[in-house]
Design goal:
The structure holds two protein chains of two kinds.
Chain A lengths: L2 E5 L5 E5 L6 H7 L19 E4 L4 H4 L4 H7 L10 E3 L12 E4 L6
Parallel strand pairs in A: 1-5
Antiparallel strand pairs in A: 1-2, 3-4, 3-5
Chain B lengths: L2 E3 L11 E2 L5 E2 L7 E2 L6 H5 L2 H10 L3 E3 L4 E4 L2 H8 L5 E2 L28 H12 L2 H25 L1 E3 H18 L9 H11 L5 H8 L2 H10 L10 H10 L7 H12 L2 H16 L1 H9 L4 H12 L4 E6 L3 E3 L2 E3 L4 E5 H4 L34 H18 E6 L4 E4 L4 E5 L1 E6 L1
Parallel strand pairs in B: 4-5, 6-12
Antiparallel strand pairs in B: 1-10, 2-3, 5-6, 7-9, 8-16, 9-12, 10-11, 13-16, 14-15
Helix pairs in contact in B: 5-6, 5-16, 6-12, 7-8, 10-11, 12-13, 12-14, 12-16, 14-16
The chains are: A alpha+beta, B alpha+beta.
Chain lengths: 107, 422
């Protein structure tokens, strides 16, 4: 089971285990990690599960698809080249140890 | 996965049948048959005890009053919503089966469509109502909410439904759509009609359709390109004709979708939030202490009251839902409201808690048909609750709240309140 570390905007880090195939958004929800809201439940509608992928993981996580890229236009915090919506990041063993940084706000 | 392909299972390929006594024949395990009419006035008056009966009877039940299957637990409602190939919308998301009955109006190109046709039209509305568009609307909506609360504080006592839950969305949404000033009084009756029409042929549905001609004429006219102001949602939809995403014939129908579902839903959502905050003053106090909770206080009200109570799907094949066989061409009624209070999913489901983690509630649906206008609803709800929390010390209910009955929507007709300034 892959682990994922969420680093809050205040520097606090939380490492949790993801169910194989679960999204990084759902994983945060299920483990009580604040800072990811996920209003729409993973429907790619709300842009409130914004994360910054740690530079070291950018290549493995990959780029946003077109629909997600358009949603990222609407994120509340600043968008950066490593911005992704965590509902679209599927946790697998290949992403074991993934590090995601959380923005200071989601809406 | 709760729904499985029955044709791939080892069970005999029996389709459910019912004898004259209403007993089940030729199916195993048995699906409970319940004598419940979820479209009756006495049900609407207090649905929660019956929701519990529906949830506890089994993962799937059969309602012989309308000859439909129904799911009321969170897992099954969520699973049905997320399997549009098996549980389709193109045969109507009300009781009426478009395969057998002529729809009362030309079907929606988004609500009453399935992938892949749905995917294209959905993408258009999704872009018109995107998070980026909401950013542009936010300041204007927030200013309108502030002005509305100031006006109501000056009055002191008023009706929280007509004077706030209706008046506020009416002050921002029609302008955001780019609607003409004339005829806006048709909007709420038209929406009431649309949501009543999802129900069975009862008094509510028949009366709404009988009165519908002027409202339908207004909406038809207002959906045309020349009647929509530049910059509004309506004009943005029509602009997608120029980019080749939709045809000129499709655009008015997509505008119609926003006029159908964009106003009455938010009226009932905001009404639900006001009713919650008035009934649970300790939650209003928590909101006043932390304004960042405004958005979640609205979201939790949508979970708690579920302004949209139900939708139907139609099975496209024999299917098993949690081990129970349902045949092809059957209507399946999803109790969104019951799922949103299923104790299997929610701790203390009957408590309104503005700090609850609400993600995953099905008040806006789930899956490909997840409410495309949910960001507009949330924006309206958030800015209104935020304005109330900043300016108001207490919301006191001063008279008996009365219900408004609709086959799909749950909300109040009247909520007399008195505000005290902060």
């Amino acid at each position: 089971m892959p682990s994922v570390t969420y680093i809050h905007s205040d520097g606090r880090a939380e490492t949790v285990t993801a169910g194989d195939g679960d999204s990084a958004m759902i994983t945060a929800m299920q483990n009580g990690v604040d800072g990811i809201v996920g209003e729409c439940g993973g429907g790619l509608v709300c842009a409130t599960c914004h994360v910054y992928v740690d530079d070291a993981w950018m290549e493995k996580v990959g780029a946003a698809a077109t629909d997600e890229d358009e949603m990222l236009e609407g994120v509340a915090a600043e968008r950066s080249p490593n911005s992704r919506l965590s509902c679209q990041i599927k946790m697998t063993d290949a992403l074991d140890g993934l590090v995601l940084r959380l923005p200071d706000r989601q809406f | 996965m709760v729904a499985t392909d029955a044709s791939a299972s080892s069970r005999p390929p029996a389709v459910l049948a019912f004898d004259m006594d209403g007993r089940q024949a030729g199916a195993s395990p048995a699906i409970p048959i319940l004598d419940v009419d979820p479209f009756a006035m006495e049900f609407f008056a207090d649905p929660h005890p019956t929701h519990e009966v529906l949830r506890e009877a089994g993962p799937v039940v059969y309602l012989d009053k309308w000859n439909v299957f129904a799911v009321a637990r969170y897992a099954e409602v969520h699973a049905v919503l997320n399997d549009p190939q098996t549980f389709c919308s193109s045969r109507g998301v009300g009781l009426s089966d478009f395969a057998n009955e002529k729809p009362w109006r030309p079907p929606s190109l988004i609500l009453e469509a399935d992938p892949p046709a749905h995917t294209r039209t959905r993408a258009v509305l999704s872009k018109v109502l995107s998070p980026a568009v909401m950013k542009q609307l936010r300041d204007g909506f927030a200013a309108a909410a502030e002005a509305k609360v100031d006006e109501l504080l000056a009055r002191g006592s008023f009706d929280a439904i007509s004077d706030l839950a209706e008046a506020f969305p009416l002050s921002v949404f029609p302008d955001a759509m780019g609607l003409q000033q004339e005829g806006r009084e048709n909007l709420l009756p038209y929406a009431g009609l649309v949501f009543n029409a999802f129900g069975p042929p009862n008094e509510l549905r028949e009366a709404a359709i009988a009165r519908s001609a002027p409202h339908q004429a207004y909406v038809l006219e207002q959906c045309q390109r020349e009647n929509l102001a530049p910059g509004g949602f309506g004009a943005c939809i029509h602009a997608r004709v120029d980019s080749g995403d939709i045809t000129a014939a499709e655009a008015p129908l997509l505008v119609r979708s926003l006029l159908s579902a964009g106003l009455d839903t938010t009226v009932n959502g905001i009404g639900a939030a006001l009713y919650c905050l008035a009934r649970y003053p300790q939650e209003f106090a928590r909101l006043r202490a932390d304004l960042s909770l405004a958005r979640n206080a609205f979201e939790e009200a949508v979970r708690y009251e579920s302004p949209v109570q139900t939708f139907f799907r139609t099975t496209t094949r024999d299917v098993e839902i949690s081990g129970h066989r349902v045949g092809e061409g059957e209507k399946v009624l999803m109790f969104l409201a019951a799922a949103n209070r299923d104790p299997r999913r929610w701790a203390e489901p009957d408590r309104y808690d503005i700090t609850r983690k609400t993600s995953g509630h099905v008040g806006f649906g789930s899956g490909v048909h997840l409410c495309v206008g949910q960001l507009v609803a949330r924006l309206e709800g958030e800015v209104m609750l935020s304005a109330l929390a900043r300016k108001v010390a207490s919301i006191e209910i001063t008279g008996k709240p009365t219900r408004r009955f609709n086959n799909t929507l749950r909300g109040l007709e009247s909520l007399p309140v008195k505000l005290t300034a902060a």
